[in-house]
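Worked problem 6 (solution included).
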Amino acid sequence: MAKNKVGHIEVPLRRVHIELTNVCDFNCLFCPKAEMKRPYGFMETNLAKRLISEIGEKGIAEKVTFHVMGEPTLHPAFFEILDHACKEGVKVGLTTNGGRLGGETGQRLLDYDLHQIDISLQTPDEKSFVLRKAGALSFERYLKGIFDFFGSYHKGHANTIFKFRFLNTRFPKKSMEERIGPIRVISSTAELRDTFRYWATRIYAMLAVDNEKKELALQRIDSLVAHKWNVVEVCPNVFFETYVLSDWGHAFGDYAIRDAWGGCCFGMRDHFAVLHNGDVILCCVDYDGNTKVGNVSDSSLSEILSSERVGEIVRGFRKMRLVHPYCKKCLGSKSRISWLFKPLVSVAGIKLLKPVFYKNTRLFDK
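Solution. The predicted structure is:
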């Protein structure tokens, strides 16, 4: 069956990331915010609306996700942009650090039927919360705001997907740790299971969940293994996710990198991103806009996705060939052994393992 295309891209993609702003009220030590060289700013409101309209009209993605860097709810016209997406019938995913959910922002969000809300909880206890550098916001007030919002929102919008994201750290030092010191959050399988059980219990105290669903979720939690990506549904439409601490494509490294000899990426395969200044980039990991392929201030998304540059990059990914220099660095390695095998792992993960995970995880069927 012939697939729909916009330019060189098979559509719909799973999502398009729209970075409303790269300004954030947190200064998390594990975030590349301090390494970011591009200026801070906010996307022009009319540009954000035009992007959303084109994505909806052309069927470019299943949803838009307000996320790359920054806290999207800080945009001065956030709710105006959200209103526009609702009017256009475009599904919206919101990724937030959760710090503003206990205030006016959270109260106003209760009126919106979002497709998905991802709360980057990351640090599940008071000790690890210091890694967030959240200013005067205490861990106790932070959690109260999140859970008050979740309880109220879920009552009115039970079909909205909620995802609580946790940071999974590893014992081998990452390059960022050599620069800023140890980062430890969830660092073992036992700690992962205990953390998820505790947070699941907090959720169950708020929602009416039958015992059979609880027991099934707890059994799944007890089968999880740390140091990898995990997603588990703790009750209908409520998920916990871990992701492993990374160096964001060697962003924190002061060492030589061997460019990858090959590999594959999800960029332009299941998503791409638009930064607040209009730059279109290949993937959401590119926090500094190094993979720019065009700018929507002077072109439409369709024109950019039809460009020969994008075509060359997409054809390269299909043949396990990296065209963009930054992709070669991002998938590159310090050691020769890693250099040999990492590209093969990237291809296996993208073409074999992750599609199976998508198929068997309800979160990705929505």
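Discussion: The chain has a mean pLDDT of 89.
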